[in-house]
Amino acid sequence: MKKLFFILQLFLFVAFNFFLLLTAYQLTGSASSMERPSYHTPVYNLEEEFDPSLKRLNSLKKFTIYCDSLYSEKKLTGNKVSFEEIYPEIASSAVRERFYHGYSLYGFRNNFMAMLLSQVSMEGISAIVIPDDILEYPYAACSQQSIVLMELLKQKGFATRKVGFQGKTTGHFCFEVFYGNGWHFYDPDMEPDSKVLNAYNRPDIQFLAQHKEVLLQAYAQYPTEKVLDIFPNYFYGAVNKFPAPKALLFQKITKTLSYTIWIAFLAVFILVRRKYLRMNRSVVRQMEIHLPRVPAADIPVTYYPTYSA
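^ thats the sequence. predicted structure below, dont judge the formating
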């Protein structure tokens, strides 16, 4: 048992130092710099509406302020604008310019717990769904761009719902916004032609699936086979519900653990260390040599009288 506790405290001490170093690495590093094994950072293809200057909008609050300023500018032009119709268009255009396509995943610098767990289970669990963390990167996948835009519009009082697609060769993630007594389809990642969609009052996905000529015209930059494989096969998510609640909870927990798990290892190490030292003291006491006590002999005591001078 003593040997087991010695090995256990050695393991806990090594683990404590390992996670403490990783935590220090996170605190001193940049969240926008991703480091993970076998991952290649997505590269801008020079075709999307990406504007590198917007990388400064690295939080949902900053991004919202930016969209609000664009809306205020529209109002100052003197034209009568409807908030419900114009604001989603402004926000959608801003997201299209803020990101280019590519998955942003957690790495050693911002959530090493999620990254490590994804290596032994599903890689997808480290695909970022927290809006502020998505905005740390210049690139984002279809689901991530939609999450940012959906969360922004929900803050502005719009109802939103996920629209998922599962074609024979690939899937896709978009969403719809409710205003003007109807749902309106948005796809910030694949960037359909807004002029085409707005000519039909920004229709919902049901309209687009039934009118394939409009769908193909809006997505004219993609092969017809790809468009017809993805978009006719759609399904809806719940209204005003975060589209990935389990992933959101997992990532919030692992982010917290990435900064605090060393404390748990330290606490357990201290407990095991105390137990090990108590066991050592017990063994030492058992090894002590106890000499037999010799009883004192019955020696008569002589009393001398006291004389006073």
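The beta strands are 100-101, 139-140, 159-166, 171-179, 182-186, 234-239.
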